[in-house]
Design brief:
With 248 residues, the chain is of the alpha/beta class. The protein has helices at 5-13, 40-43, 46-49, 52-57, 59-75, 80-88, 105-109, 165-177, 196-202, 229-246; strands at 16-21, 94-99, 114-116, 119-126, 132-133, 152-156, 180-184, 206-210, 223-225. Helix 6 runs parallel beside helix 10 (229-246). The protein binds 2'-O-acetyl adenosine-5-diphosphoribose (OAD).
């Protein structure tokens, strides 16, 4: 893959690097995206499955949908795209991965410097008292109950809910400092995550997108590579590593 000189120069010198990922990075692990072909939101309405109102109306349906996705995520393996991002964090002094994914695959690939913008399906919390649970308790009830008697919900961000403040603050700060910003496998249609590359661009970052299709962020990117993440990322990371050795 031919990478332009401007990108290589930035990559060879950058101190601050940020990556934003979306469902596309996990597509090659066999997990469905939301808006792609066979994506969840092509067949279901988000308001029926991913809102507090949906959970209030039919907690069992919502819990079972997440339970199914949890099982799929546990069966899936991190792919070369996830693994390359975990290697990338070692190349730069300051690095942050902000993922919109809730599947836990980045952690399983070894990423450490990361935040989960939309939570994690392998954790739960009480719908009533907000008590956090680091895992999914099994009390043979669907959904399981909190010690206060309330229903447990997946610890994810639903439509109409705010992102965790500390997570958003960390992501925003990293975006405004980034010299190089990767946008990988996201349609860029959900806010505030989709604003992170714009914040970075406004602060002078070089923005590179990796997505087999055009997205709503393609136009603002300095470089848009029409590849699958698992195909492109390992070679991009190897090239960046070499460029840093040579300090172009
Ligand atoms: P989308 O389903 O909206 O977009 C997935 C993107 O991944 C598309 O642009 C695809 O072209 C791209 N893609 C597909 N396969 C790929 C591959 N192998 N490599 C790279 N890219 C690929 O998913 P998100 O952008 O993640 O929110 O969606 C954002 C949010 O909307 C999600 O976090 C979720 C959803 O509703 C919540 O649950 C709050």
């Amino acid at each position: 893959m031919e990478l332009p000189q401007e990108f290589l120069k930035t990559a060879s010198r950058a101190r601050y690097v940020m990556v934003l990922t979306g469902a596309g990075i996990s597509a090659e692990s066999g997990l469905a995206t939301f808006r792609g072909q066979d994506g969840w939101w092509r067949n279901y309405h988000p308001q029926d499955l991913a809102t507090p109102q949906a959970f209030y109306k039919d907690p069992r349906l919502v819990w079972e949908w997440y339970q199914w996705r949890r099982e799929q995520a546990l069966k899936a393996q991190p792919n070369p795209g996830h693994l390359a991002i975990a290697v990338m964090e070692k190349l730069f002094p300051e690095f942050l991965l902000a993922t919109q994914n809730v599947d836990g695959l980045h952690q399983r690939a070894g990423s450490l410097k990361m935040v989960e913008l939309h939570g994690n399906i392998h954790r739960s919390r009480c719908f009533r008292c907000q008590k956090p649970y680091p895992s999914i308790p099994n009390d043979n009830q669907i959904p399981p109950r909190c010690s206060c008697g309330g229903l447990l919900r997946p610890d994810v961000v639903w439509f109409g809910e705010e992102l965790p403040r500390d997570v958003l603050k960390q992501a925003w700060e990293a975006a405004s400092q980034a010299q190089l910003f990767f946008v990988i496998g996201t349609s860029g249609l959900v806010q505030p995550a989709a604003s992170l590359p714009l914040v970075a661009r406004r602060s002078g970052a070089f923005v590179i997108e990796v997505n087999p299709e055009e997205s709503s962020l393609t136009e603002m990117a300095d470089l848009s590579l029409r590849y699958k993440a698992g195909e492109a990322m390992p070679s991009i990371v190897r090239t960046m590593e070499k460029a840093r050795w040579r300090k172009l």
